[in-house]
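F.,

This is the one I mentioned.
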């Protein structure tokens, strides 16, 4: 009896990499505070990271809600109490980037398995997956590991569950802070999807791309370089 071929895994951050979370947050901010959506987004990105690292672990829906409250307070905006959960309500409807379907469909045909490693709750990511144009073989959430990236917990759980039988494993993500830096420290192959043209050091990644249209070729290059 022959042995099976080892799996090849691509793991992905979800929001910012596959789902256009900036559009989702900005649009929701605009609904809450007309004319202030862009400003709301800029403040949100900073405040959310603060909330995630405070105190004991809390579910992502609580992080979303508390961050909305603090952003409104910092911007001196009047937030109705019931509106603090606006992002929890809209997140299932945030759209994927247009380049996700073609890139992942091509990589699926080449035999890669896909997993999401996300700073999210199980129920929220289940709703989000309905928007994604391809299926995923595994999901690791913040709720599963009681931690938020850049904590290594997502990556360590994936490695202990799937990585030991993986012939190859490449992580793909937009966030330099949440994903690229910790995977570099862990020695995991990584591709940085620098959608925003950020100025962080690209040499910390095995490859840098500006969108997922470039991902299949980058995956081939990183895979061949191993």
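My design for it:
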């Amino acid at each position: 009896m022959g042995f099976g071929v080892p799996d090849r895994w691509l793991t992905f951050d979800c929001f910012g990499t596959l789902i256009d979370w900036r559009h989702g947050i900005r649009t929701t901010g605009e609904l809450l505070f007309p004319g202030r959506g862009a400003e709301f987004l800029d403040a949100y990105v900073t405040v959310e990271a603060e909330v995630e690292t405070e105190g004991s672990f809390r579910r992502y829906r609580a992080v979303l809600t508390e961050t909305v409250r603090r952003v409104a307070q910092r911007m001196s905006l009047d937030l109705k109490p019931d509106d603090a959960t606006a992002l929890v309500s809209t997140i299932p409807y945030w759209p994927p980037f247009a380049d996700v379907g073609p890139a992942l469909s091509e990589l699926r045909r080449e035999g890669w398995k896909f997993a999401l490693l996300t700073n999210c709750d199980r129920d929220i990511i289940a709703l989000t997956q309905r928007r994604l144009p391809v299926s995923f073989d595994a999901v690791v959430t913040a709720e599963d590991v009681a931690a938020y990236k850049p904590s290594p917990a997502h990556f360590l759980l994936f490695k202990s569950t799937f990585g030991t039988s993986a012939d190859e494993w490449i992580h793909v993500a937009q966030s330099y802070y949440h994903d690229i830096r910790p995977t570099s420290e862990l020695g995991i192959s990584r591709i940085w999807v620098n959608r925003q043209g950020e100025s962080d050091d690209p040499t910390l990644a095995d490859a840098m791309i500006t969108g997922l249209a470039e991902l299949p070729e980058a995956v081939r290059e990183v895979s061949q370089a191993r």
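The chain has a mean pLDDT of 95.

Talk soon.
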